[in-house]
Amino acid sequence: MTLRRRRGTVHITVTGVPLAVAGPVAERLRVQVAAGDGRMELEPTGNVRVSLAAGPAPAPVQEVSPSPYA
Fold first, then answer.
1. Which residues does 13 contact at the CB level (< 8 Å), separation at least 6?
2. CA 67, CA 45: separation in Å to the nearest integer?
3. Which of 9, 10, 14, 19 matches a 20 to 30 Å C-alpha distance to 58?
4. What φ, ψ does residue 49 adopt, rounded to 5°?
5. Residue 70 in contact with residue 43, Cβ under 8 Å?
6. Cα torsion at 55, 43, 30, 2 (round to 10°)?
7. How far apart are CA 50 and CA 32, in angstroms?
8. CA angle 31, 28, 60 (to 5 degrees)
9. Are 50 and 40 in contact (CB under 8 A)?
């Protein structure tokens, strides 16, 4: 497995997993990658290549209780 980040994109390559390029595993990967607006290549040799956008991390959300003075 290799993981690279270049110009706002994360590239993930996994090799040697022939069961991941067909059937239910491949379909689940397709759904997950599509949810992240990514691209995926499945090779018959068992290689999976995924590219996902890697924008800035969102700011943490902090919940604040309503003020009793408002």
1. 1, 2, 47, 48, 49, 50
2. 61
3. 14
4. -120, 125
5. no
6. -30
7. 11
8. 60
9. yes
Helix (H, G, I), strand (E, B) or coil at 32: helix
Q: DSSP labels for 36-69?
A: TT-EEEEETTTEEEEEEE--PPPPPP---PPPTT
User: For residues 62 and 39, is the Cβ–Cβ distance under 8 A?
Assistant: no
State the Cα–Cα distance between residues 49 and 43, nearest whole angstrom: 8
**pTM of the full predicted structure?**
0.70
SS3 42: strand
Q: What angle do CA 65, 66, 69 make, to 5 degrees?
A: 135
**How is residue 18 annotated by DSSP?**
G
Is 32 within 8 Å of 24 (Cβ atoms)?
no
